[in-house]
Please model this.
Amino acid sequence: MENERLLQRALVEELSGLYRAPGRHYHGLAHIEALLGLLRQHLALISDPETVEAAIWFHDAVYDSRRADNERLSAELAREKLAGLTSPERLAIIAGMIEATATHTPPALGDAAADRDAALFLDMDLSILGAPPAEFDAYEEAIRREYDWVGEADWRKGRAGVLKRFADRPAIYHTEVFRQEFEAPARQNIARSLARLAETG
Model:
């Protein structure tokens, strides 16, 4: 970790303001705080905690449910705000982690330690899928509120498609530590949600 903190107080406050914007029923500050908690919990497994912390803070900084390029725009914002504060190589890793949240497929960052950190970061972001049922259901309701402009039939089809893509993976999580804790409950939650989405009336 570098001597001066990558995320200084003024930048954290600026980002916190973005996450407090109206309409962020799930992708808000509580989501960031949950991921920061997971970062602290798994600190011993992470090569560069400040890089992962930056990816956490920026990964949903731009969020508009009507857009398909939020991840790219969030990565661009990270490049802009962190320019000159760290090396170009480290900034590219942060941006790569953020962009990878579009598909939750680990990126090839050209560095084995960074690749491991990215896999852990992506698993943290998906930990909600393996949350206790009541917490998962609240997450699903919050996501629906973020897409309240989508009609019910289109919502059911679209959401089912997203969840099926995760269910069809050989493993939802990329790291052993997250698979052990979250894989089984995530598959149970997804199965319940898909059954609800398939209901008519």
Remarks:
- The chain has a mean pLDDT of 96.
- The longest helix spans residues 176-198.
- The chain has two domains: 9-125, 131-198.
- The CA atoms of residues 15 and 26 lie 16 Å apart.
